[in-house]
Amino acid sequence: MKVRVVCYEGYKAEEAPRAFMLGERRVEVVRILDRWRGEDHEYVKLDGSDGARYILRYDRSRDEWEIQMMESRRPRVDHPAGNGRNPWPEKLCNTLD
Fold it and tell me: Would you state the torsion angle of the CA atoms of residues 82, 91, 48, 3, taken in this order, to the nearest 10 degrees?
């Protein structure tokens, strides 16, 4: 999914995302967790202000950003009986941790 990214250009002219737009909603970058370069792309793993974790990919030749992964941080669901155990096991998919 292509996204508009607001960047801060540092002293080495490398762009660091500060926020991005999901439709009409602006998501601020809370923390950059990792950055790496591929042959034609740059990747940024970050935590967003919406509580989700993202991997954004920047295509240098096209000057375009897109979301490669989004991991939602859902709140814990307690058992209806109130014993504090989650009866519905959850598994996170597409995580790089």
Answer: -140
The answer to whether 94 touches 69, Cβ cutoff 8 Å, is: yes
- State the Cα–Cα distance between residues 57 and 44, nearest whole angstrom: 7
Amino acid at 27: V
* C-alpha torsion 95→47→33→19, nearest 10: 130
Going from the C-alpha of 90 to that of each of 74, 77, 78, 86, the distances in angstroms are 10, 10, 12, 9
**pLDDT-based confidence at residue 19 (cuts at 50, 70, 90):** very high
27-83, pLDDT tens digit by residue?
999 999 999 999 999 999 999 999 999 999 999 899 899 999 999 876 544 445 445
